[in-house]
From TrEMBL:
Primary subcellular site in the record, as a coarse category: mitochondrion
Cell compartment(s), UniProt: Mitochondrion
Originating species: Oncorhynchus tshawytscha (Chinook salmon)
GO biological process: one example: DNA biosynthetic process
InterPro entries assigned: Deoxyribonucleoside_kinase, DNK_dom, P-loop_NTPase
Source taxon at top rank: Eukaryota
Catalyses which reaction(s): thymidine + ATP = dTMP + ADP + H(+); 2'-deoxyuridine + ATP = dUMP + ADP + H(+); 2'-deoxycytidine + ATP = dCMP + ADP + H(+)
Pfam families the record matches: dNK
Known EC number: 2.7.1.21, 2.7.1.74
Recorded family membership: Belongs to the DCK/DGK family.
SUPFAM superfamilies: P-loop containing nucleoside triphosphate hydrolases (SSF52540)
GO MF, one annotated term: thymidine kinase activity
Official protein name in the record: Thymidine kinase 2, mitochondrial
Record's keyword terms, sorted: ATP-binding, DNA synthesis, Kinase, Mitochondrion, Nucleotide-binding, Transferase, Transit peptide
Amino acid sequence: MSFNSLCMNNLWRSAIRLSSNAAVTSTRLVAIRCKRFGDKRGELCQTRAHSNNTQHVSRKLVRNGKEKKLVVFIEGNIASGKTTCLEYFSKTSNIEVLTEPVSKWRNVRGHNPLGLMYQDPTRWGITLQTYVQLTMLDRHLSTMSAPVRMMERSIYSAKYIFVENLFRSGKMPEVDFAVLSEWFEWITQNIAIPVDLIVYLQSSPQTCHERLKERCREEEKIIPLEYLEAIHQLYEDWLIKKTSFNVPAPVLVIPADDDLQKMLHQYEENREKILAGSNV
Ligand SMILES: Nc1ncnc2c1ncn2[C@@H]1O[C@H](COP(=O)(O)OP(=O)(O)O)[C@@H](O)[C@H]1O
Ligand SMILES: Cc1cn([C@H]2C[C@H](O)[C@@H](COP(=O)(O)O)O2)c(=O)[nH]c1=O
């Protein structure tokens, strides 16, 4: 049976639901190939996965009515309150929360690419951003453990905001930007990255600067207000003006300058909208 004939057209959004890690790896590869064969994102439905010498026929779908799952990205500037927001929603059963893998970015086999990048962005920007891209992709492809996934940032913001900022500010050599862009384009053209809604925590750079100082992460002590202003502008162009890059899902904007109590209230007020996914 040809590979293409295994793909049905009337189902959408795929996710990996397999019982063994080996099978997961195989199925990811099948997902990659299926997208190459021209399926719209997630239309891949049934795949044949090989692990060792065993053949599995695996259904790779979540959006067939009963199994519908929802993926929400929480986006926003550094220290805008994303983690705090996710902590709040993590108390809800049926919501799986994935925070950014910052601890990995601070320690990969004893090295700290985040710290190195802030010390010397021209030298280490490519190193950090390559690793961010890998770890984000790994997050996106991990098996969902609940009907709703809320994930801090995405492979998109890593590229459209942080890589873009390094390049535009003259801190990333053109060749590094080109290589990262090739990787990013290959990934997004060949691998399905599910997303139903983007929640944008819209905060002023000044607020973020205050909160960042309060949080006091060692590597970030040297971040000036201007850096947060540049990140803010890139977010606004992407998610509000929609003039810079593709926006992969509808955007729900939540103003995020208020104190914690008001923010928690706002999250509660927006709960239904968030759980409605793209029907905002
Ligand atoms: N609404 C708020 N008002 C005041 N401080 C806040 C608020 N939300 C978060 N913080 C604090 O600001 C810092 C950054 O918040 P955090 O959730 O870690 O942001 P992010 O994950 O977006 O970087 C933390 O010290 C946090 O406790
Ligand atoms: C995605 C991404 C992040 N970073 C940096 C920016 C911050 O210093 C941390 C993330 O912290 P936050 O409080 O969760 O915003 O990582 C980066 O340099 N490049 C990236 O792509």
